[in-house]
Amino acid sequence: MKKRLFSDDREIYRWLIVLVEFAFIGVTSFGGGSATVAAMRQLCSRRGWLSEREFVDTLVLSKLTPGISILAQALLIGRAAGGAAGMVAGPVGLLVPSIAITVLLARLYEWVSAIPWAAGPLHSVTAVTAGFAVALSLQFMKDVLNRSRVALNAGIFVIYLALSYVIHNPLLLMGLAIAAALAVPSLFDDAEAGSEDATQDGEASVEP
Amino acid sequence: MSLEQLFFAVLVANLVGFGGLSSLPILRNQIAAAGMPADTLLLHALAVGQMSPGPNGLYLIAVGYFVADLPGVAVATAGLLIPPVLVLLLERLRVRLLHLSRFRAALHSLSLTVVALLVNSSINLAQHASTDVFGGVMVAIGAVLLLRAAPPILAIAFAVVAGLLIY
Q1: Which of A206, B7, B60, B164 has the fewest C-beta atoms under 10 angstroms from its C-beta?
Q2: How far does the CA of residue B4 sit from the closest CA of chain A (Å)?
Q3: Is B64 on the interface with A (CB under 8 A)?
Q4: What residues of chain B lie within 8 A of the CB of A166, using their CB?
Q5: Using CA atoms, how far apart are residues A49 and A16, in angstroms rounded to an integer?
Q6: What is the separation, in whole angstroms, between the first and last Cα of chain B?
Q7: What is the pLDDT of residues A116-125, one digit of tens each?
């Protein structure tokens, strides 16, 4: 049973608690998405807003949602904790401080860029950042290939990668990928091919 | 790039991406189509995004700032907030949809494409940043540090010090 956040006469303030808690995560969760998910998990556990199972449910659903999945998860957690107002307070609380800090850093970055001696360090920073992009791509690649039928998935991946150099419109390539899956689902769906690790009970398999 | 173009670029990039940097290929394509230096702008925005707290996808806020200052930030924020609301629809449909083989197949095929496009864009960004040997070395160091789970902010601090010492 979920722990009550407040007594009934103060339920109106639940959204405010959601806002403050998510704002704190927004300020402190340096380290990308995984750090934010870990902080949200601790929050749910500490406040008793969601059980472990319910938290994983929100994680699975948010991973299936387009856009920044953490915002979708903050929306679901906020709703569970504070109803409709909490649903708004979660993503807003998470975003506002992060956006404010991002804007301040962007202004600082712009200001530093104008200083002549800063050209070297900035070149170094952008190069390291490009390295981050490469690393994140490799991590994503490992995630999508790390399932059953690795050779088949790797083959399809290589074809898509080769096509990305020929078809310069990403949306067109994505449309082709969806069309291919709809035409031959057995090539892409592990469950249809009889895999054990595919979704069996109507839920995607996502590590918490 | 007008504010409307920026809004739709961020919105579309988010609608077809699944968080993190997966929005990068679409955005790169849209920024380049608007006649802006996409790789340079994205590298600066990614650098700011990696220094900021919160999800990696917030580099889009820095893109909004570099394209159109604070109005760009507002527009990018709006483009970021709309797609996650679809989770409410997915919540209602999920059991029905996930039992459909074609839906699961389409999701997996789409994720393979998004990652292929991301690999393509990342290689382009790495080439763009490797204008000299030092740049190439720093790209490799950045990749290794992130793969070894080093905090991005520390890697960036290291890059600043290395840049000051070398240049």
Answers
A1: B164
A2: 19
A3: no
A4: none
A5: 14
A6: 34
A7: 777 888 888 8
Of the pLDDT bands very low, low, confident and very high (cuts 50, 70, 90), residue A32 is: low
Please enumerate in sequence order all residues whose Cβ is within 8 A of that of A186, keeping only pairs 6 or more positions apart, or say none. Answer: A192, A193, B101, B105
Tell me if B56 sits within 8 A of A46, measured CB to CB: no
Domain residue ranges of chain B, discontinuous segments joined by +? 3-125, 130-167
B83 contacts A65? CB cut-off 8 A: yes
What are the structure tokens assigned to A28, written together?
A: 């402190």
The residue extents of the domains of chain A are 1-119, 144-196
**Per the structure block, which two tokens stand in for B130?**
């490797």
Concatenating the DSSP letter of every residue in A154-182 gives HHHHHHHHHHHHH---HHHHHHHHHHHHH
Buried b (16+ CB within 10 A) or exposed e, B31-54: beeeeeebbebbbbbbbbbbbbbb
Taking the Cβ of residue B67 and every Cβ of chain A, the question of whether any pair is shorter than 8 Å is answered with no
| Residues A98, B54 contacting (CB under 8 angstroms) | yes
DSSP codes of every residue in chain B: --HHHHHHHHHHHHHHS-STTTTHHHHHHHHHHTTS-HHHHHHHHHHHHHHSSS-GGGHHHHHHHHHHHHHHHHHHHHHHHTGGGGHHHHHHHHHHHHT-HHHHHHHHHHHHHHHHHHHHHHHHHHHHH-SSHHHHHHHHHHHHHHHTT--HHHHHHHHHHHHHHH-
The complex's ipTM works out to: 0.77
Please answer whether residues A39 and B66 qualify as being in contact, where contact means their C-beta atoms are separated by less than 8 angstroms: no
- Output the six-digit token pair for B62: 């820095």
* Euclidean distance between CA atoms A158 and A150, whole angstroms: 12
The pTM score is 0.73
Query: Average pLDDT per run of 10 along chain B, which is 167 residues long?
Result: 88 78 82 85 86 81 91 92 86 77 85 84 85 90 86 82 85
